[in-house]
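Subject: Re: docking follow-up (zinc ion)

Dear J.,

Thanks for your patience while I sorted out the input files. As discussed at Tuesday's group meeting, I've set up the holo structure prediction with zinc ion included as the bound ligand rather than trying to dock it afterwards. The sequence and the ligand SMILES I used are pasted below, so you can double-check that they match what you have on your end before we go further.
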Amino acid sequence: MNKVDSIIKGQIVLKDKVMKGEVGIKEGKIISIHEGTGNLQSDEVKDYGDAFVFPGMIDVHVHCFSNPDEGFVTTSTSAAAGGITTFLDMPYDLPNPVNNVDQFKKKVKQLEEEAVVDICLWGTITKINGTDQIIPLAEAGAIAFKMSTFETDAYRFPRIPDPEIMKAMKLIEKTGLRAAFHSENDEIIVDLIDEYQKAGKVYPKAHNETRPPVTETSAVLKLMEFAYWTNVKLHIVHVSHPRTIDLIKLFQAQGVKVTCETCYPYLLMDVDDLDKYGPIAKNNPPLREQEEVQGLWKHIEEGNIDLVSSDHAPWSAEQKERGNENIFLASSGLPGVEIMIPLMFNSTVSNGRLTPNEFSNLMSTHPAEVFSIPGKGQISVGYDADFTVIDPAQKTVIDQNSFKSYSKLTPFNGQELNCKVISTILRGEEVFDGENVIKGPGFGKFVPGSAAK
Ligand SMILES: [Zn+2]
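The structure tokens for the complex came back this morning:
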């Protein structure tokens, strides 16, 4: 009998099937997978019975440092409690974004001291004359590059002009990494917001009305055409509208290497929630009409959306609540790393909309494949022993006050879900036992991208 460091038993979710079985772990890696039990020997055995043992869930879209009060410790603790074993941290840090190698290396050092789960780091570029940092950032281990066609902040989160986007795409293509974009048409939005503010139209839904679907679809169209001519691997973050996916499919059919994600709020809320919750439900792009939400779900069911992310944005109560009088004053974004996995399981596997395998693909396997994350995203021999264990027979009640994140305001507060994350396991060791996060800062590791030297 094979002696291993530890054994995990349960309903093992493999790439194409689910089987009652056991997984053998040695030195943090998966070394064997067996149907049934009794094939392996170890002093450390965890039997999860009928609960699903998924590959560790991956959130590709997290903003630890948009608010410096958050940072790696709270976000990664929150992620562990939410069943996430690896996340990709965005580069738009306050005060200084990750648009050069020195900043990147500083962030890696901080990550190694503070992370509770594994983390990959995005890189970005300055508004102009910044593309010379692309190759060095790729070699330093950036997982991908994030840019924006909308100006959130001229220094921290700039709109990149078209000539710089073209230069950047040509260089990123050489690295084999992905160029990802926040895709909204800046000019139309700025003009509409100006018009609305002057007319005193600052009610919650004004946020949606000043960012109509054409502002997303037209921005995405331009980027896909740029990708056609540069051959870069393109990724569209936080798609909010089904027509965007229709357009992506057209370009994919022409050979453009474009992938996309949506975020859990676009699937689980609609524009009426902006009325109901006000700034707490404000994000960019905004929530859409219910029939548009149903259109996104149809694309999820048909497999047209590669993955779902959280776009975790850790704003303080003050940064959200200042939008109560005027929606345009509130920060955009919602916390998500601690609730996305149970929320998504509850509205897919629990109600039969997706199989456990399809869920696993959306939340773990595809994120790892789209961003070429080594050793992650599958329960396969040789992969990291990262698991997210979800019990469909238990319940979770979302309590925002218990969030490990600094950010504690969510429209989903109080919602009861038909599932519970009962364990989060990273490289063979439990980080969350269903009640408490039992590993501290420094357990998580930096995972370099595929172009690292
Ligand atoms: Zn984001």
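A couple of observations from a first look. The first helix runs from residue 71 to 81. The chain has a mean pLDDT of 97.

Let me know if you'd like me to rerun anything.

Best regards,
T.
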